[in-house]
Amino acid sequence: MSFAFTCAYIGPFCVSHGRGKREEIQRFRFATQAESMRHLGYTPMVMDGRVRVAWSTTPDRPGIEMGVGGSFLYDQFDRPAPAVNEEMTITALTDCSYLCVVASGIQQRVQLERHELAARGQVTVDRFCLVAIAGADSSVRINGSSPKTGIRVVYARSADLVIEADSRCVIGVFSLCN
Amino acid sequence: MTISYEIVGFHQSTGSAQVRFHNDDLPEGVVFSINLPVTEGRYPQGDALDSLIRSYAPVDIFERAAQLKSVPPPSMDGLPVRSAPRPSDLQSANAGEGQIFVREGKERIFLLQPLVRLYALDLPVEVI
Fold first, then answer.
1. B60: helix, strand or coil
2. What is the pLDDT at residue A69?
3. How, if at all, do strands A96-103 and A122-125 pair?
């Protein structure tokens, strides 16, 4: 069984969210030819659970396991993955989900910055960025709001966002780049 | 379920076709903008184009329309919506053209039609 996907346009981004149940697999390939992260133009990020990512060029290798914050291009420790332009097989090691964000506009690309926040950690996000709060047990306050728990997506439509973590979490900031 | 379509426009600078999908349950239809891939300098034609367009048919929307057709129409009180434009209105308004981008620190959204499934993620989405 493949993962189940939903999608939406949010601001200048097109966002897809794939959910997989344990042991389900999903084949994935970036739609654009790319030689490196710099050329790719969009990035996925694991929002919940754990996955194993294996590449078609290295079928004999067991693949790389990733948890929350893993991006298929880099694991959560920012070590580069083996290849950026090959078909991948994503195996759900647990119930899991990942987000994939592309730009709606023509010739626009999206870059991802990930921040691991400890409790009481804080990050400021520029206006017009898309923020993914990853980790099912995450709890954050946005611009001084009441705590918001669980994985979610926030679009900074009107102002910069100050995100404070009540508990350890991974924040993915998607922004447009040239 | 049978869903028909017609190409109501083509945007040359973006290489996208505006396609109206419709059937008896939703005669006014819905319009999608579909990017056409370029292969060896050509857009798809004939069966290839037909297959591509049919792969974009929003089946869930038409299933929903069929489902709602079988029950009394729910009240729309309090919903800030306009009725869907008629096909003639779509053509005269250069139907389906739209871009969303950020320039000079300002968000530019040019939508002549509402995007279907605007908030259809199975995740909480906040716009602040």
1. helix
2. 85
3. unpaired
A46 in contact with B, Cβ within 8 Å: no
Q: Show residues of chain B in contact with A106, CB under 8 Å.
A: 14, 99
Q: How many CB atoms lie within 10 A of CB A49?
A: 21
Separation in Å, CA A83 to CA A56, A63, B122: 9, 11, 30
CA torsion A148→A47→A154→A11, rounded to 10°? -160
- Indicate yes or no: CB of A159 within 8 angstroms of CB of B128: yes
Q: For residue A172, what are the β-bridge partners?
A: A114, A132
Least confident piece of the model among A65-74, B6-15, B97-106: B97-106
Which residue in this structure is represented by tokens 């279907």? B116
Residue B68's Cα: distance from chain center in Å?
A: 19
Closest CA to A105 of B37, B94, B108, B115: B108
Which residue has 């040239």 as its token pair? A178
pLDDT one-digit tens code per residue, A61-72: 677 888 898 877
Alpha helices in A25-95 (DSSP H): 37-40
Residue with tokens 């346009």: A9
HSE value, Cβ hemisphere, 13 Å, CA-based, for A111: 8
The DSSP symbol for B88 reads H
Which residues have CB under 8 Å from A156's CB, separation 6+? Answer: A125, A126, A127, A128, A129, A130, A131, B128
Q: CA A9, A145, A69 angle in degrees (round to 5)? A: 55
How distant is the Cα of A58 from the closest Cα of chain B, in angstroms? 29
Residue A15's closest chain B neighbor by CA? B121
pTM of the model: 0.59
Q: Do A19 and B122 touch (CB under 8 A)?
A: yes
* Complex prediction ipTM: 0.81
Contact A98, A18 (CB under 8 A): yes
**Spatial CB neighbours of A49, under 8 Å, sequence gap ≥ 6:** A20, A67, A68, A92, A93, A94, A95, A96, A97
